[in-house]
Structure formats: structure tokens, C-alpha cells
Design brief:
Helix content is about 40%, strand content about 20%. It is built from four helices and four strands; from the N terminus they run H-H-H-E-E-E-E-H. The protein has a four-stranded antiparallel β-sheet with strand order 1-2-3-4. A hairpin with a 4-residue loop joins strand 3 and strand 4. Helix 3 crosses helix 4. The longest helix has 13 residues.
Length: about 110
């Protein structure tokens, strides 16, 4: 006689806060954020920008304990996936990542 706890799923906007917070960290490589910001100052196409982002991030990720927020992030050739300790996850393709970073730069939050 176990009761399953009903847990509210995150909305799209709530998940977006996690990806924005993650993007503001940069690629996790030394000077990665600086290289990304410089990339957006160049006169390149969106396709070229996406290729540069994929190369900057590479394949990898990180994981935080539940006490530290319980978020894990993985990135590969398809984009970035955010997973919460609740098991909820959301994948963001490089096209969307490109647009989010560009927006953050334009509004001065990157």
C-alpha cells in the first residue's frame, strides 16, 4: 500500500531558466565563454556559428548533487540536454542554443 507522490512537472519557461543559467557559464573550458562571445562579434552565418558552438562544447557534461541543485547537463553533436534529479529532462538543439546565446549577448546578460 504505497502511495506515489504526485509531482508537478516543470513548464517550458521553468526549464528555460536552467538552460539559460547553464549557457551563462560558457563551455566549461578555459576562456570558452570569451571565445563564444567573440564568435558572435564576427560576420558569420548562423550555420557557421552553430558549427563553432559544437566544436567549442565538444562532447561532455557535468552533474550536481541534489543538495547543489540536482541538475546534470550533457552536450554532444545534437545539442545540450538538461536533466533534473526528478528525472525530467529537456533537450535543446544547437539551433536553439545559438539563438539563446545571441539573445543573452544582445540583452547584456552573457
Amino acid at each position: 500500500k504505497y502511495k506515489l507522490a504526485m509531482q508537478r512537472l516543470l513548464t517550458e519557461e521553468e526549464f528555460k531558466k536552467f538552460i539559460v543559467q547553464d549557457l551563462k557559464r560558457g563551455s566549461s573550458f578555459v576562456d570558452g565563454k570569451k571565445r563564444i562571445k567573440e564568435m558572435y562579434k564576427k560576420d558569420i552565418t548562423k550555420s557557421e556559428g552553430i558549427t563553432l558552438l559544437k566544436n567549442e562544447y565538444g562532447v561532455g557534461g557535468y552533474s550536481l548533487t541534489k543538495a547543489s541543485g540536482g541538475v546534470s547537463q550533457t552536450h554532444d553533436t545534437t545539442g545540450i540536454t538538461i536533466e533534473l534529479y526528478t528525472g525530467e529532462e529537456k533537450h535543446y538543439g544547437w539551433n536553439e542554443i545559438h539563438d539563446l546565446i545571441l539573445t543573452l549577448i544582445r540583452i547584456g546578460e552573457y
